[in-house]
Automatic annotation (TrEMBL):
Signal peptide: none annotated. This is Putative signal transducing protein. Coiled coil: none annotated. It comes from the Bacteria. Residues 1-64 form the DUF2007 domain. InterPro entries: DUF2007 (IPR018551), N-reg_PII-like_a/b (IPR011322). The lineage of its organism: Bacteria, Pseudomonadati, Pseudomonadota, Alphaproteobacteria, Rhodobacterales. It holds the Pfam family DUF2007. SUPFAM superfamilies: GlnB-like (SSF54913).
Length: 72
């Protein structure tokens, strides 16, 4: 798995996940349960991972839809 997107905005993550699902690209959200540590204030970013084989197609889909990747 390879990190595609990192964000603290749950709407971006939901939109990106739905977009990838529409493109038949499997994705997985990491750090979803970090709210237990942060107290639910949303300061820790969540990561969206895809398979390495799907990474280029997923990256292209994110860029084509102007989704900020939020990673270095």
């Amino acid at each position: 798995m390879k990190e595609l997107l990192r964000s603290t905005d749950p709407t971006i993550l939901a939109y990106a996940s739905a977009l990838l699902e529409g493109e038949d690209i499997d994705c997985f959200q990491m750090d979803v349960n970090m709210s237990v540590l942060e107290g639910g204030i949303g300061i820790f970013p969540r990561r969206l991972l895809v398979r390495e084989d799907d990474f280029e197609a997923a990256l292209r889909a994110m860029r084509d839809n102007d989704i900020p990747l939020g990673r270095d």
